[in-house]
Amino acid sequence: MKSEYRSLDRYQAEIEPIRDCNGDGSYLLAPCRLFGVLHHLNFVRVRAEDGVWVADSASEVNRAYVEDVYRLYDNPLVPVGVPGYTGQYLAFLHPYSR
Predict the structure, then answer these.
(1) CB 17 within 8 A of CB 5
(2) Which among 8, 18, 80, 98 has most CB atoms closer than 10 A?
(3) Neighbour-count burial for 70-81, b at 16+ CB within 10 Å, e otherwise
(4) What are the structural domains of the chain?
């Protein structure tokens, strides 16, 4: 049986420079192309509170991002460091929208 999956070039990813959207490092955005499709790579700065990660900002949008991830995934969240910024961030990848 012929596979319905196509082979994709492993180098088809481009990430643009990270932008500080709120001016305080709490929400970062890096537009990127994955296999020719534009996406947003979002980073929300978090801190540990009572054993869970919460947004380290008063921004309602940042809190909503983190809450959405907890609703969608059963696995523990693992924050990452972002070069040039202090703190820990949860990363979210979304197809581009205006």
Answers:
(1) no
(2) 18
(3) eeeeeeeeebee
(4) 13-95 (3.30.200)
Distance CA 16, CA 55 (A): 24
Tokens representing 72? 């969608």
CA atoms within 13 A on the CB side of 57: 25
Six-digit token pair at 18?
């990270």
Q: Which of 50, 57, 59, 61 is nearest to 87 (CA)?
A: 57
Over residues 80-98, the pLDDT tens digits come to 999 999 999 999 888 877 6
Q: Which amino acid is at 50?
A: D
| 11-63 pLDDT tens trace | 688 889 999 999 999 999 999 988 888 999 999 999 999 988 899 987 888 88
> Token pair for residue 76?
């523990």
